Automatic annotation (TrEMBL):
GO biological-process terms attached to the record: methylation
Keywords annotated in UniProt: Glycoprotein, Methyltransferase, Signal-anchor, Transferase, Transmembrane
UniProt membrane topology term: Single-pass membrane protein; Single-pass type II membrane protein
Organism: Salix viminalis (Common osier)
GO molecular function terms listed in the Swiss-Prot or TrEMBL record: methyltransferase activity
EC number, UniProt record: 2.1.1.-
First-level EC class: transferase
Name of this chain's protein: Methyltransferase
Length: 140
């Protein structure tokens, strides 16, 4: 699942693999990119991540979240979003979070309290860029 799909670039990058990606766009997005996602032959939907996603628990193996926590910072808590990720993620699943370093540090702290193992990496922009990547392994 791509929690902030934009135009479906994450899913498009994975088309050579035997996987499917649910492209989720913010319900209050300034641009309606869902038609672009559909035009690329991909699946997608709108979502407010302060609410529960309409899916069965333990549906997804991997969740990609680019800028989601910064986007919802003033709308709901980091814990609410992480708990929803936990609900829809399969056991031993993985999460890739890309966000501002301050947000990444806050997310990592809460994720560790959930007994998720995370490590922070620099983005392709280098060590001095404020955007970082948090890789989370949910296995024990």
């Amino acid at each position: 699942m791509d929690m902030n799909a934009g135009i479906g670039g994450f899913a498009a990058a994975l088309t050579q693999y035997p996987v499917w990606v649910m492209n989720v766009l913010p319900y209050d997005a300034k641009q309606n990119n869902l038609s672009i996602v559909y035009d690329r032959g991909l699946i997608g939907t709108y979502m407010n991540w302060c609410e529960a996603f309409s899916t069965y628990p333990r549906t997804y193996d991997l969740i990609h979240a680019h800028g989601v926590f910064s986007m919802y910072m003033d709308k709901c808590s980091i814990l609410d979003i992480l708990l929803e990720m936990h609900r829809i993620l399969r056991p031993e699943g993985a999460v890739i979070i890309r966000d501002h370093v301050d947000t990444i540090v806050a997310v990592k702290g809460i994720a560790e309290k959930m007994r998720w193992n995370g490590r922070v990496l620099h983005s392709e922009n280098g060590a001095f860029h404020p955007e970082k990547i948090l890789l989370i392994d949910t296995s024990d």
